[in-house]
Each structure stands twice: as structure tokens, then as C-alpha cells.
Amino acid sequence: MTILTSLRKGAAPGVAVEIALGHVSAASLEWRGGQPVIAAHAAEALPDGALVPALTAVNVQDRPAVLGAIGRVLDRVGRPRRIGLIIPDIVAKVSLVRFEKVPPRAQDLDQLVRWQVRKTAPFAIEEAQVSYVPALRADDGQEFIVSLARRDVIQEYEQLCAEAGAHAGLVDLATFNVINAVLAGTAAPSADWLLVNIAPDYTSIALVRGPHLIFFRNRATDTDGTLADLVHQTAMYYEDRLKGAGFARVILAGAGAADARQAGDIHQIRRSLEERLRTPVSTVDPRAAATLADRITAAPALLDGLTPLVGLLLRDRHEVTA
Domain for residue 28, yes or no? Predict the structure, then answer.
């Protein structure tokens, strides 16, 4: 069954695969002495333009190239028959919706959610894959975190995996699993924290209250405005609308894998975050959640690439919740 958000309970697979702009990667998890260990990891670069993640358009532009990369990474992690699949945030529209009263029947709630999100959906709701979970309950009603994607776009990714010999029983978004990796770590935040996740083609910002997601925003790289503007707007929203008292942690993900074009912007973001929020900015380290096999060298780019994979693989232990 396809799931578009990790905000739902369910057993994690033993192998996770990420298909993203510029690369395909995979990791396998083993338990040794009661502790999770990343036993194998593989990554393959994609040719420019082979995959162009998008919400409303065809994503796979060079099918043989993407399919070949998937096959090669699967070979290196043991040729699993069942996997969890991570796709770019930009493929889905994530929003929080609030209802004063929640219908008791699941079918009625499903219809209500679909009716609400169809107002802002960039395509017909009949073409959509919709997933939702409850968020933190407020005094004036119940919020839900809703992920909306075009069904045929999700099927592009699923079919690639199927052709490579692996069934994607779970389809999830990258940033949700970065959050899951942080929560699975030995020092998971218990107060409010901010995550800035940078990918080559988008940036996502999440506000999390302990394990509870309370705000999510995604912005394509080619959108007008800077990353600093987006972070500033989010911080203002947190202070003014969410009555935030300050962040216990501010985490920057993706910086280790950034290209030269992004490096200056990322340095500026880190500095402006620390100055404005008066909080040191740390990077996410998946080794706080799962150790690496001895033969895996922990370069910064590798740690960034492993983070969402680890988050998905450990989603049933410390799962991001609403």
C-alpha cells in the first residue's frame, strides 16, 4: 500500500531506497546485540535531466538511466524483494488543515479531508493520492497533516522499483524521514526545534514540538526569494502565530551534500540562523540513531545521504507523529 507520509504507524522495511534529483541511494539495516546497524549502503549518480521531480508533470525523463541506477544500488544492498521508498518533498503538497469537529467514521473523515484540500490542489482531487494523520489537538479543533500528490506521479516511482525487482510497500517523503532520524537518535529533542532540509531542487522547513510536527513548508530552488527570507518568515510565523518560546535545537540537513552553487547561501543561512535565534546550528548525524558497519566511511556527504534512509528504516521505533 502506498503511503505518502511517515506520520502513520507501520513496520519499517529492512532496506530503504531514495530516488532524488541527481542520485539514487539505498541502505540496509541489521540488528546486532539489540542495536541497529547500517550494514550496507550504495549510491549512484544520475545524469543531468534523467529525473526532474515535480508536482504536476512527468518526473522520469530518462527511464533506462534511472532504472539502471536503481538496479545497481539494489545489487549492492542484497537484492531485496521489498523496500521502503523515499521520494523528493517537491513531489507532494503538504499542509495542515483544521476541523472544529471530526466525524467518527473513517470514511466520512476521508471525504472531509479531500473536500478541504481540493480547494488548493493544483490538479483534480480524483487524480490524487491523499494521506493524512492527526496533528496536535488545539482548543478550537483538531488539525491534520495532509500529504497530497498526483497518483500517476507516485506510480512512476513505484513502477521503476517494480521493474528493478523490488516492491515499494511504503512510499514516503524525504524530510519526514530526516525528522524520524533525529527522533530515533540518542538525544532526540523534547522541546520545540527547527529543521532546515536543503536539497538541490528544493528546501523544506519543519517546526517540531518534541515529536509532533506543527508546521511544514516546501520551496522550490528556482522560486523567487532567498533561503534566508524563507527561514525569517518561518521564524516570524513561529513567534507570532504559534506563540513559540524559542528553539531548543536548530538543525541543518543537506549541507554536506551541497554543491558549490549552494555553499555560500548555506553558510549565510547558518550564520543568520545563529544570530537571529541565538541558538547554535547543528547538523544531523544519523549515527546517533544507527551505527555504521566498519567498512562504511563517514564523510559529511554520506551522512547527509544516509539520514533519510535511516529515518525510514527506524520509523517504527521513533516515528514522527502529529
Answer: no
The domain total for the chain is 1
Residues 90, 154, 175: CA angle, nearest 5 degrees: 35
Q: Where are the beta strands (DSSP E) in 33-152?
A: 35-45, 82-87, 93-99, 128-138, 141-150
Q: DSSP secondary structure string, 198-217?
A: EETTEEEEEEEETTEEEEEE
- Domain extent, residue 218, equals 187-283
Contacts of 157 (CB under 8 A, 6+ apart): 19, 59, 85, 87, 91, 168, 171
Question: What is the pLDDT, as a whole number, of residue 226?
Answer: 76
CA distance 286 to 62: 31
Burial of 150 (0-12, 13-18, 19+ CB in 10 A): buried
- Between CA 18 and CA 27 the distance in angstroms is 9
Q: Is residue 207 part of a domain?
A: yes
Whether residue 3 lies inside any domain: the answer is: no
CATH code: domain of residue 231:
3.30.420.40
C-beta separation of 309 from 177 below 8 A:
yes
pLDDT in tens, 77-117: 999 999 999 999 999 999 989 899 999 999 999 999 999 99
DSSP letter at 57 equals S
| 31 contact partners, CB below 8 Å, separation of at least 6 | 37
Predicted local confidence at residue 66, as pLDDT:
98
The answer to whether 118 and 72 have CB atoms below 8 angstroms apart is no
Model confidence at 261: pLDDT above 80: no
Portion of the chain with pLDDT greater than 90, in percent: 63
Does residue 120 belong to any structural domain of this protein? Answer: no
- DSSP assignment letter at 49: T
| pLDDT score at 259 | 54
How many angstroms separate the CA atoms of 82 and 313, rounded? Answer: 12
